[in-house]
Amino acid sequence: MTVRQRKAPPVTTETRRLIRSRRAALDNGERDEYLRVNRLCRAAIRRDCVSHYTGRVKIQITVTQETSFIVLHSRNMTITKRELHTSDDSVNVSITRLLLYPERDQVYLSVNESLQLGQNYTLSFEFNYTLREALEGFYLSHYTAANGSKRYLATTQFEPNAARAAFPCFDEPQLKATFQLAMVRHESHTALFNTPRRSTADLDFYLGAGIKQDDFFETVRMSTYLVAFIVSDYAHISDTTDGSE
């Protein structure tokens, strides 16, 4: 699979001290006193069949207590862009600092004004990393075809807490959300998700010959570790029962 990967320098800076000052909001499951994952986590993923992974994620959140910081999870990836705005796009909120705490897989965002009680916000990230044969997160795997050639695929294993290794998220089982996925792939591959495919678009003009984007229906409300997707050249069959594929 061949996909153009957007190049951008890292914007993150590693630190520990400031995040540790917020541990009470993290260690005892109280994070949702400040923020609640409201409705939807959208991920758009672009990758080639060797190692490169580029994605965007949008997380809709509701503020349940005024706060000037957000802490969520991310593991072994480079965040190249981050934005925060009200869900109606009427107000952009400046993110003054983005700090990493790798030992706890945490990303700390400090904003220049308090997030308002009851307000809905959309938190967006662009990110990239290299797929590894690691059996967790979104990882690279392979099999040997009948002709002896090595064939690659990329798939997921998020349980118990490896969704954070695929995209930035609130990766705690009690913080449930609904999820939508858009996957960019080569036409020789198939993408599968928790839900049926809603549509497929040609991206030849933007990304080169044979590149497709699959958009999938929104999931039910669930924990991050239940999210699953795969890009492969596997043959597959499907059926419909009571109107569901």
Verbal overview:
Helix content is 5%, strand content 48%. The protein is built from three helices and 16 strands. Mean pLDDT is 80; it is low at 1-42. The chain has helices at residues 17-20, 24-27, 204-207; strands spanning 13-14, 35-47, 52-63, 67-73, 78-86, 92-93, 95-101, 106-115, 120-130, 137-144, 150-157, 178-186, 190-193, 197-202, 211-216, 229-232.
Number of strands: 16
**Helix and strand string, N-terminal first?**
EHHEEEEEEEEEEEEEHEE
Overall CATH architecture of the largest domain: Sandwich
Q: Percent helix among the residues?
A: under 10%
Low-pLDDT stretches are 1-42
Could you please say which CATH topology of the largest domain applies here? Immunoglobulin-like
Morphology = globular
Number of helices: 3
Measured by DSSP, the beta-strand proportion falls in over 45%
What is the average of the pLDDT values?
Answer: 80
The first-level CATH class of the largest domain is given as: Mainly Beta
Number of domains in the coordinates?
2
Keywords: Aminopeptidase, Glycoprotein, Hydrolase, Membrane, Metal-binding, Metalloprotease, Protease, Signal-anchor, Transmembrane, Transmembrane helix, Zinc
Domain Aminopeptidase N-like N-terminal: 51-226
Subcellular location: Membrane
GO molecular function: metalloaminopeptidase activity; peptide binding; zinc ion binding
